[in-house]
Amino acid sequence: MSIDQLQQRYDKAGQGHLLKFWDTLSEEERVQLTKQLEALDVERVNRIYQKAVSAEKEASDPNVPAEPVGPLPKDATDSVNDADKAKDWRRVGLAAIARGQVGVLLMAGGQGTRLGSSAPKGCYDIGLPSHKSLFQYQAERIARLQEVAELEEGKPAGSVIIPWYIMTSGPTRPETEKFFKTNEFFGLKPENVIFFEQGTLPCLTMEGKILLEAPSRIAVAPDGNGGLYAATRSPVSPSDPKTTVLSDLAKRNILYVHAYCVDNCLVRVADPVFLGYSISKQADCTAKVVPKTDPTESVGVVARRGSKFSVVEYSEITKEEAERRNPETGELALRAGNIANHFYTTDFLNRVEAFEDELAFHIARKKIPHTNLETGEFVKPSKANGMKLELFVFDVFPFTEHFSVLEVERREDFSPLKNAPGTGSDDPETSRRDLLAQHKRFLENAGAKVAEGVEIEISPLASYAGEGLESAKGKTFTKSGIVNQVEELDALA
Question: Is this prediction's pTM over 0.85?
Fold first, then answer.
């Protein structure tokens, strides 16, 4: 596209100011800016801005009645507390894994900034005796689950594959890929680990004008974890423009996808119980949730908003609604704490594009460094001067046709890593504590005793969720240690 055509297109979209410094740019800078402007769907950016602003205005308009928030209907939710049901669901899930119908989507675009690390969050070591990173734990859970599916479904060794699609961001992709290569993909086959990139959107002024970070560069920010959906349609790499996550899922005949966030050390990757539940419910999308600890816990809940399923943020719920209880069970009516752990059919993921324009992005008003259009100087503002637009991964819930919810135990499924060491909640120490406590329960559930103060770390390669530890029955473990193979437990008794 010529510079005149670009100018015309951007003038028409009301964003012609982006070429203001063209005459002062070097040839290299002109190439850089042209590339960015050609790749940007500026008309879509304008649509997203208009929709976000009007949705925000409507939500805060006292004359527009808010849709009532209500608990989940009984037929849309279930719990893993029913052991017989959980056993059946696990069987259904393992059969789907053994048939090669399951893939995994990992949202891993964040950096460990709050943890005092500039590395991708998945590289973080929470201080386990083994010093394994979050990425390694998740990779080893996949490896073990492939093995379990082969054993229980009578498949040849090495025949079951769970492809792993890892969504990075611009800043984290090179380091994430390098980390996996250096660690030989933690034993997984490289062709079954597919990296792709979260999208970005331009940063805007409060009036919707795109900001320049430099005279030759637009200011951009990640488009939120809900950018996952658009990212599955984008080429996985510039060197392979024809392959997308969706095309790869289709090529592999994947029917079901488990999606989750990298920062949960307890995540059961491709959890066969969760998969089996969702498949049995014939759901197109399912949310795994944990019960809220108390009415005031500041966590979003999966609930009904009007006639549709939605995640309702804590700030949107009145004190009365938060404290309301189910008269039959005595449990909180709005109790389904959202943990960003989802099941999708690939049919649903393919359908998102059809309603994506109806999704309202969320506005985050921020201090955005930019180039002053009058002076050409770089400005670092002291107060919010613009907005970043984000989509959340749960924004698709209202558009599902068959939505369901599975409640799981927090201590078995959810221990997020959000805060700096020593914070006391959702930090490396609580992650370490929760994971080692789970390993202790694995042994106790197998009929063993673990002496007070003894810490035993069980590699996911030895047990995915407590299975395969029958040989520990009747033993008392008095020594701390790391168990990479079940046979190594004997040395700790």
Answer: yes
